[in-house]
Write a structure and sequence with these properties.
By secondary structure, this protein is mostly helical. It contains 7 helices and no strands. It folds into 2 domains: about 110 residues, no CATH class; about 40 residues. The radius of gyration is 37 Å and the shape is rod-shaped. It starts with a helix and ends with a helix.
Length: about 170
């Protein structure tokens, strides 16, 4: 394959992916190219941000007809006016792109914001925590008393016999 054949193949594949409503004779081709560029920018924004608050302003992650019009230096009416043949298809295409971007945003945020099931201390009521605390403190006191008794008994068993007689343990 020559370089010309590769270029023709690439152009034919590019033409197949371009919708029917896009034409070089009007603003639809420029609008289509701007939509593709904006979509790439919005995707980059989506994948660079992980906080839900970053997506409060829709202009950061959605595409509007006004943004397209500003980029190609046309009025909004030029793109979606009633006299424009491709207006309905353009609006539908932008809605579809925005829908895809919205799904990408939701799936991206879902990866980072899975709420774990409440467990541990934060998932319990204060009254339950207080009751558990009382029980644990009582158990701790019992264990301390048993521990002291065991240590005293061990110390007495390890004492020499004459010391035990002087203390009156034996």
């Amino acid at each position: 394959m020559s370089l010309d054949d590769l270029v023709k193949l690439k152009n034919s594949q590019a033409e197949k992916s371009i919708p029917d409503w896009v034409s070089e004779t009007n603003s639809s081709a420029a609008a289509y190219m701007v939509i593709q560029a904006l979509r790439d920018e919005r995707r980059a924004y989506i994948y660079d941000h992980v906080q839900a608050s970053d997506f409060k302003k829709k202009a950061n992650w959605q595409i509007s007809i006004r943004q397209i019009a500003v980029r190609i230096d046309r009025s909004v009416q030029t793109l979606i006016g009633t006299q424009v043949k491709y207006a309905h298809d353009l609006k539908r295409y932008v809605r579809r792109i925005n829908s895809d971007l919205s799904k990408e945003k939701d799936s991206h945020l879902a990866k980072y914001h899975r709420k774990p099931k409440s467990g541990g201390v934060r998932g319990k009521k204060k009254s339950i925590l207080e009751e558990e605390n009382r029980k644990l403190r009582a158990d701790l006191e019992k264990v301390k008393a048993e521990n002291v008794a065991k240590k005293v008994e061990m110390a007495v068993t390890q004492m020499p016999l004459d010391l035990k007689r002087k203390l009156g343990v034996v």
